[in-house]
Amino acid sequence: MGQIVAAMASVHAPQLFTRPPEEDPKQLDADVAAMGQLGKVLDETKPDALVIFGSDHLETFFLQSVPTFAVIAGERATAAFAGRSYAPPIHQALAEDLLDKLVRAGFDMAYSQEALLGHSFAAPFEWVLGGRDIPVVPVFINTYLPPLPSARRCAALGKAVGEIIATRPERVALLASGGMSHYPGTWRYYQPDYAFDQWCIEELENGNNDAFLNLTVEQLDEVGNTEMLPWAAVLGAIGEQHMELLTYQPTSHHGHAVARFHPGKPAAAKPRTINQYQFRNEGYEFYKHPSLSSYKLNKLLYESRHKPALRQRMLQDIDAVGADYGLNAEEIEALRPLSPDPLVKVGAHPLGALMAVHVLQADRRKMQAAEKKEAAGQ
């Protein structure tokens, strides 16, 4: 019979790839070292497959079609980020069986045989899988485009995954990619909720998984942790286990956590510094359902991330590009500063705006460097 031989969770921050100067390299190094420990867990447990529950940053899926849950069931799991690309083989027998039996179990799964994944999968491919010859099964969970699945629903999905694995012959490792507190593209980008992270960590260390699983998606949005929904899937798959925290790095804009899980409750209770976290419970604030009126703007931002020629046109003549996409004058003006804040104010999804702006800024720096070099040559 099949068996879950390891359960883990890891940050996937893009700064691990890009190493911007404002980041503390010691914190990033600690993350990478902890992810390397997860790789050693794979060496110790020798799984036949690694199932990765991850999210999307409006790069694989867009408003044309947003699945709640999806299995990537192609030949390879292709991922690209920051100039690096990955294509580990997918364990197709397991992926297809999960897809079929999850639907039969009442989960309306989407699937893709050809999806380009982002850094939610690229980061664990780089630092956890690390070139090991272990086939993967990427499972997508919607974390940024409400309506979102609840933590309980994600746990139910994970429980069903665990039950399917038990009917199969493979030894399987599970990894949740995402978290903890961060608010990319919003006004609160540099104000992570470290207090929530600490409370949640302490509850999970004590095996009190319900404290996290009982949270609503609106509460997770409040504390910048909708990206922890993949953790819920892993917790649902493994049942009552406690967490071993390998590292928590409170960076300037993001709580980075790497952890693994162990069966049962811990031998001794971990001390709690926060007995109960107090929520405002005011509904979605940061990542709301995008308005239809801003669809054209969001579409331009999405497509610009995949089309270098389009980005070049945007940098050279944003008025013409805006007209091509049917944007109004206010939306075109919001594009000029290459900053997410004005874009969010006119209806852009915060995360989509931030990711698009990062790529545009990088292209602008390259153009300016080339122009400077050309001028120096003359």
Provide a short characterization of the protein structure.
The protein has 378 residues and is α/β, with parallel strands linked by helices. 44% of the residues lie in helices and 16% in strands. The longest helix is centred in the last third of the chain and has 28 residues, at 350-377.
What's the structural blueprint in terms of helices and strands?
Layout: E1 3-10, H1 15-18, H2 25-45, E2 49-54, E3 69-72, E4 79-81, E5 84-86, H3 92-104, E6 110-112, H4 119-129, E7 136-141, H5 151-166, E8 171-177, H6 194-205, H7 209-213, H8 217-222, H9 229-238, E9 241-250, E10 255-263, H10 295-304, H11 308-316, H12 318-324, H13 329-335, H14 340-345, H15 350-377
Parallel strand pairs: 1-8, 2-7, 2-8, 3-6
Antiparallel strand pairs: 1-10, 3-7, 4-5, 9-10
Helix pairs in contact: 2-4, 3-5, 5-9, 10-15, 11-12, 11-15
Q: If you had to describe this structure to a student in words, what would you say it looks like?
A:
- This protein has 378 residues and is of the alpha/beta class.
- It has two domains: 3-263, LigB-like (Protocatechuate 4,5-dioxygenase, Chain B), CATH 3.40.830.10; 296-377, no CATH class.
- It has 15 helices and ten strands.
- It has helices spanning 15-18, 25-45, 92-104, 119-129, 151-166, 194-205, 209-213, 217-222, 229-238, 295-304, 308-316, 318-324, 329-335, 340-345, 350-377, and strands spanning 3-10, 49-54, 69-72, 79-81, 84-86, 110-112, 136-141, 171-177, 241-250, 255-263.
- The protein has an eight-stranded mixed sheet with strand order 6-3-7-2-8-1-10-9, sandwiched between helices. A two-stranded antiparallel ribbon has the order 4-5.
- β4 and β5 form a beta hairpin.
- α5 crosses α9 (229-238), α11 (308-316) packs across α12 (318-324) and α11 (308-316) crosses α15.
- The chain is globular, with a radius of gyration of 21 Å.
